[in-house]
Write a structure and sequence with these properties.
- This protein has eight helices and 18 strands.
- By secondary structure, the protein is of the alpha/beta class.
- It has one domain: Metallo-beta-lactamase, Chain A, CATH 3.60.15.
- The strands form two sheets. The chain has a nine-stranded mixed β-sheet, covered by helices on one side.
- The protein starts with a helix and ends with a strand.
- 50% of the residues are buried.
Length: 337
Amino acid sequence: MRRATFLLALILATLPLAARDLDIYFIDVEGGQATLIVTPAGKSMLVDAGWPGNQGRDARRIAAAAKLAGIKQIDYMLVTHYHLDHVGGVPELAAILPIVTYVDHGPNTETDVPAKVLSAAYAPVVAKGKHLVVRPGDQIPLAGVEVRVVAARGVTIKAPLEGAGAANPACGAVSPQAADPTENARSVAFLLAYGKFRFADFGDITWNTENALVCPANLLGASELYLMTHHGLDISNSPAMLSALRPRVAIMNNGANKGGAPRAWWRIAHNPGFEDLWQLHYAVAGGPGHNAQAQFIANPETAACQGHWIKVTARSDGSFTVTNGRDNRSKTYTARK
């Protein structure tokens, strides 16, 4: 009997594990960013960590999402840029959840007093883990997916990604804006690929950096899922960028009173091939005419926010499901033909 039990255990141990999907949690940090990616290999990357303060609100919300995702550490902590709503929550998160490797574009390019305070809080935390500085074209070695950096520190890739490179006809109608000297334009931007599924997260890069990636040629190709850049502000999300990516679904990481600009909403809503916008918050600035449908908004209240998340579960064939954490209602998008 013991021998039979041993043989059965040995056989089960050699069988392949059931395939997992790619999970992406868009965590509500009240108009900052905190996007938790958990790969089919069980590895994790957190993109930004929201704000500091508020009794550790954002760190606690991230830790709750990590528990829901079944992970006990953050393998890669990607800081897109050094603004309070993106990097401010890193020290508080590191105090409650282990972080293995920190990823960023190198030192803060801003030098005013608030920037120095942010850098002084971030540096000792990074010193306790591994540190990876990325440049355009680099891959972040997140097992189970491919994460390609397409912009960092104000520099963009120069050669097209595989399958990209076609002329972008939308570029002719887009003019440059004034140069952006802030950390926004220097955000780490990346494209994630899992089989036929693509996800674009560009942090807070602004208009001119966006257009450098897609004009005159589209260096990126198409993407099923798009995190609206810069919380859905209209100094980002240029028509040329949206035309190049042709996303089917977009997530807006806005707050009730931050982001969600009506012109940016209009551009994405009228982009060819676009299907649905999901928002972390109802955008007060948008009013009734420039917000997603009610079932696609995680936090419809404008005060006393409950902190509900949005989750995307993607499969390698390019299909994916979006779930509203407020009521667990989901919608599935079949693979592109």
